Structures are given as C-alpha cells and as structure tokens.
Amino acid sequence: MNHEQEKYYVPEQSPWPIVGAFALFFIAVGCALTIIQLDSPNNSGAILLLVGIATLIYMIFGWFRNVIQESQAGLYSEQMDRSFKQGMGWFIFSEIMFFGAFFGALFYARMIAVPWLGGASNNVSTNEVLWPQFEAAWPLLTTPDGTVTQAMGWQGLPLINTIILLASSITLSLAHVALEKDQRAKVKAFLGLTVLLGIGFLTLQVEEYIHAYQELGLTLQSGVYGNTFFLLTGFHGVHVTLGAIILFVIWVRVLKGHFSAKNHFAFQAGAWYWHFVDVVWLCLFVFVYVL
C-alpha cells in the first residue's frame, strides 16, 4: 500500500546563530561596563552596548528575512511547523526561568535577608555587628553607607503602563481573530495599534527612569531595592523592545500580503511572546510596585 511521504526541508547552514551570540556577548559586557563607568568619563561600555544592540537588530532582521523567504517559497512542511512550535515553546520556557531567577532574588531579599538583618530567627547579635539600628522594612530606602532614596509608587506611570500592556494584549488578540477570519483590514489596524502601544509603553518607561533618577534619587546605587527594581523593569523593557520589533516585522508582512487564515505560525509565535511579556509585567507590577 503506497503512502504519500511528507517532505522534510533541511535548512542550509546559517551564520545568524554565531552573529547573535556575539551580539549578546557585546550587550552583556557593555551593560556591565556601563554600570561600572557611570561616574567615569570613559564611555567604552556604552559604545560596546550600542554595538551589541545594533548587531542583535541586524541578526534579527537578517534571520527573519531568510526564514520568510523559505516560508514564502513553500519549502516548509508540517514537521517544520512542529519544530518551530517546539522551539518557540522552549524559548519562552527559558525566558520564564530567566525572570524566575530575578523574582527569586527579590523574594530572597524581602522574605529572608531583610528579616534576618533585622534580628529575626535569634540573629540579634549578627544584626548588631552587620548593621546596627537596622529596621526590617521593605523597600529599603537607606543603604549601609547612608544613601537615602524614595520608593517608586504604583500609581501614575506604572499604572498607566499596566493599562497600556493589557490593552495591547486585547488588540493583538483581536488581530489574531481577524486573521483567522481573513479580515485583513482589521488585522492591519489592530496589529499596528499593538505596536504603537508597545512603543508608548517604552516611552513612558524612559520617563519613569528619568523621574526615578532626577526626582526620587532611585538609582542603581540605591542598595538592593534599586538593584532589583532596575534589573526587573530594565530586562522587561528589553523584552518589550524585542517583542515590538517582532510584531512590527509581522505587521509589515501583513501589509505585503503574507499569512493566511490557516498558515500564520509566525504571527502566533509573536503573539505568544507578547502575551508572555504582558504576564511578566503583571507579576512585576504586583511584586515590585504594589506589595
């Protein structure tokens, strides 16, 4: 009995993974040097960081271009689609673990280290040696060297940004439903609005950082509270930036007539990533800003 065999496409060797590895290396080293050189006239860290970001953007667009060309040429099979879904699933899982580490650090600082320094669990003598007159409260607004800061409230810009991200999830879902119904005009409108909302979020986050540094005295030198605040919100901002780039590329593809009601995994993958970023922000808003 003859059965039609499913074709399997094996992509050619690609330079993009190694380009992406160099980009992430430059970004990591650049971030570290930038933090170290905050009070120094030397800006080599910032330059390296910009080189890393530019290389990463170049890699994303170059890799996307190759994948789009292969897809449009009809080279992909159902097996490739399953591989893409598995790859995206594992990528999002790795991102969950990434943020889980930072939320874990926040939990440790708030629930273990701070009470311990305050004399909990019969560590009164240790408390007197390490930090006399320490008060176990969160957020820590005074560092051991006497630096005083203010906490970032949940109202104002953080609340507005939460509403913006929630609205962007709704508009993205509406775009997905419209694509499944082959209503391309609605797809273009709702997806374009989602990208604009993402840009609006990033713009307000920059304003929030300016407010934190100039008016609240909340900086990376503000002890464990400042460190955890900027690490969590900063890395989330990086992910929003990446998500906005992905959705923008998808929007451009929609304008060019790509995707169909049945075949649009690239759209789905971008939507999965964006919804993941939204969920992370909700957790961040609750545990960093509100509680």
From TrEMBL:
Q: Which species is this UniProt entry from?
A: Pseudoalteromonas peptidolytica F12-50-A1
Q: Which GO terms describe its biological process?
A: aerobic electron transport chain
Which keywords describe this protein according to UniProt?
Membrane, Translocase, Transmembrane, Transmembrane helix
UniProt similarity note: Belongs to the cytochrome c oxidase subunit 3 family.
* Residues of the Heme-copper oxidase subunit III family profile domain: 4-291
Q: What is its main location?
A: membrane
Topological category with respect to the lipid bilayer: Multi-pass membrane protein
- The gene that this protein is the product of is coxC
This enzyme's EC code(s): 7.1.1.9
One Pfam family in the UniProt entry: COX3
Q: Name one GO molecular function term.
A: cytochrome-c oxidase activity
Where is the protein situated, by its record's location annotation? Cell membrane; Membrane
Provide the transmembrane region boundaries: 16-38, 44-68, 89-109, 159-178, 190-210, 230-252, 272-290
Q: What is this protein called?
A: cytochrome-c oxidase
Q: Which SUPFAM superfamilies match?
A: Cytochrome c oxidase subunit III-like
Identify the GO cellular component terms for this protein: plasma membrane
